[in-house]
Every structure is written in C-alpha cells, then in structure tokens.
Amino acid sequence: MVVRHHFRYLSAVMVASVVLTAGCGRGKPVTEVRPVAAVAPSGEETAAAEPIATSDDDFPWWRGTKGNGLASGAVPTKWSATENVVWSVPVPGKGHASPIVWGNQVFIATADDAKQTMSLISFDRATGKEGWTRILHEGGFMHTHGKNTQASPTPACDGKHVYWTAMVKDAIWVSAVTLDGQIAWQTEAGPFVSMHGYGSSPILFGKLVIVQGDSNGPGWLGALDKESGKIVWRVQRGNGASFATPVIAEVAGKTQLLLAGQEKVVSYDPLTGKKHWEAEGPATVCANQLAWNDELIFVSGGYPQRATWAMKADGSGEVVWKKNWKCYVPSMVVAEGRLIVPQDDGIVHCVEAASGKELWFKRLGEMSASPVLVDGKLLVTTESGKTHVLAFGDTFEQLAENENGDRCYATPTVCGGRIYLRNFSQLLCLGPAEKL
User: Fold this and answer.
1) Beta carbons of 338 and 354 less than 8 angstroms apart
2) Cβ–Cβ < 8 Å for 356, 390
3) How far apart are CA 226 and CA 204, in angstroms?
4) What pairs with residue 426 in β-bridges?
5) What's the CA gap between 110 and 151, in Å, rounded?
6) Could you tell me the sign of the dihedral formed by the alpha carbons of 305, 310, 315, 318, in that order?
7) Which residues face 106 on adjacent strands?
8) For 68-125, how does the pLDDT look when each residue is reduced to its tens digit (9 = 90+)?
C-alpha cells in the first residue's frame, strides 16, 4: 500500500533561533529551529514530497504501516519449540526494540552493556542468517530504569535507509543506515537528561524523520531531513520525562502529529512543528502511543496518575469518557468500534470505543509489549514470555496460549504470514514452513 503523506516540503532554513530557558530542569538549553518553505526559481513553493511506498508484506516501523498495531494477512494461532517455528537466531546484547521488516531483510536494534556499544543488525528474512552488524555508538551510556534498555526504540525504514534513535552522551542521536549496513549520517537531535532512560521510536512523514526529546530537562520535539540529517524544525516542550512515541493521524478531518505527556495532549503540524491545539491530558508521564479513530483519540498514562481517556480530536479538549486504568507502557488498539486497553498489571479490557462501555476484561499477566490485531485475532504478549491469541469480539475467547522460550517485553511484528518475535535472548520467525 502507499502511505499518502502529500505536503509542501519545508527546507531546513532557520528563520528564528531562540534559546529556551523556561522551566527549572537540568540540561543544556534547547534551541528552536523554525523552517521556511523552499521556493523554486519561479517563485512558487516546491511540489509535494513523494509518498513512502510500503507493502502489506512489510512492517517498516513501530506498530506497522499505519502506526496503529493493525496487521494484514493470516498467521498461525499456535506455536511451540517444535511447531510453526520457521527459524530462530540468538540476538546479542539487550534491547526491547521490536524487529522491523523491509523486503528480504529483518532489522533489529541491540545494545551491549559490557562493551557499551549500540548496534543495528540485519537478518535474512527467509533463513534468519545474519547479514551484517553495524555499531552506531560506543560509550556514553546513560542511566536507565531496570526494566528499560539502551536499545528500546524501534527502528524505521523507508526502503532506502533504516533510521534509529538513541540516548547517548546527554543527547538524543538519530542515525541513518543504508540497507547494506553503511552509516549515511548521524545527527545530535537535541539534549536529554535521563532518569529512567529513553524509549520513543522515530516516525517517518514524507521527507522527515520525527523524534521527541521529553526528559528530566528541557523537552523538545523535532524533525530531521531524511537525506541529510539536518534539523528541519524543532520546538520546545515542557520539562518532564515522558517516553511516548508520537503518532501521525488523519483524525477530525486533519493530519495531526499527536503526542501525550507532561499532563497534556498536544497536536502539531508535522511539516512545521506549529501547534494546532493543546488540551489537558491524563497523566504526567506517558510511555505508550495513543490510539485514534475518525473523531476520537484514546490516551493513557501511568505516573503518578492512573487514567485512560477518550477525547475529541478537534481541539476542544472535550473528554468523552474516563477510566481509572493504568495503561502505561503497552499501547491500545482500536478497530471495528472496539478499543483494547492493556494494563501493565496484566488486565486486558475490551470496551466500546465511542462510549467506554466495558464488553469484557481478563487478567493474562504483566505486560510491556503492545497487542497486535491481525486476521480477527489479538496477539497479547506477556513479560513472562507467553503470547495469548484472543478472538477479537464482544466476548472473551482465548484461542491459544503459546510459550515464546524466554521473557519478552518487545511487541511482535506481523507481516507476510509471519510473526517476528523478540524475546530476551532470541529472534523468532513463526509461521507455517510451506509458505517459504
């Protein structure tokens, strides 16, 4: 399919640089970068950027092509150490980043705490054979929470480069790597003060790589040019850590770059970083990615408040319904009028998206991974290393409970009739062998 991100491309020409000193957080001050439109010799603005062409057989970034946890095709319901395992390979180091898939390659990010290296690895999609390993950073590791890692953000791929964000040497760095493993560029996107680490994945929009830098110092949100790595725009956010990955959603009749955290939900123009609107949010610290349908956004957080809200996405700030649920790290899934709310403590709720009316709930086990919906089935992976396969309906029905061989915090990747699942020690490719 084609992601239709048509827009007037903005150059990285800075029309204003302002040192931002608001707030009392630690860390280097953030400099705003504000772009102007690139102008052709005729005096007209340049044409819209080409869209990013993707395929249902690929899973190019965090939570899939649409960034919403929905996958296409059919996958096995049951697997074990001897059933429906196409291949399995050891993954060195540690990381909670999900694998991504493009063409005949599977990419994964990992970190070696002892050697203080952060790396990107490419595996052959058909066999699991390692293609290459590229070290992106050496040294400069920063403090993380015990449940976090130095390689928690999931990479993103546009068919030309793989992009990855990392917390290194008091800053967030963005790297672009070619599909054959060569570093194209690396850019310090902005300062970062760590208390519990970093976990936000990069998102792609036409010619831009968008990253967020909320931390225990001055926060920011920015976009880099995919070809050069130059900062196109960067805007100030408040002081306060938050780990959420932004989303770009077509909602309430507008393309919106949405990000929750710091007790707010904010909508930006993804081309410029200009703020569309800002509304009260459910929590100080958010770690997941919000969900959306045509008119509503569903946002949740976990510290210190326990809250899950459905809000109008028109900028009015109207809250349609609220629940006292701690959906902190795992992200929600919305489809067919239902919303799946996975709590960190292991309870999964299914509600009517429009009203919040609960249809069912079930305790499955503590979780950090986000559910994935595919072929009418919900894949829910727990930290203990089990994946529960549930029917996606108005009543609870478990179709299978599968062992993954080790503990698991990473969200499964689903495409081309396969499930790519990362546990603490391995990368598994699950599916019927006859599809090879």
Assistant:
1) no
2) no
3) 9
4) 90
5) 5
6) negative
7) 101, 123
8) 999 999 999 999 988 999 999 999 999 999 999 999 999 999 999 999 999 999 999 9
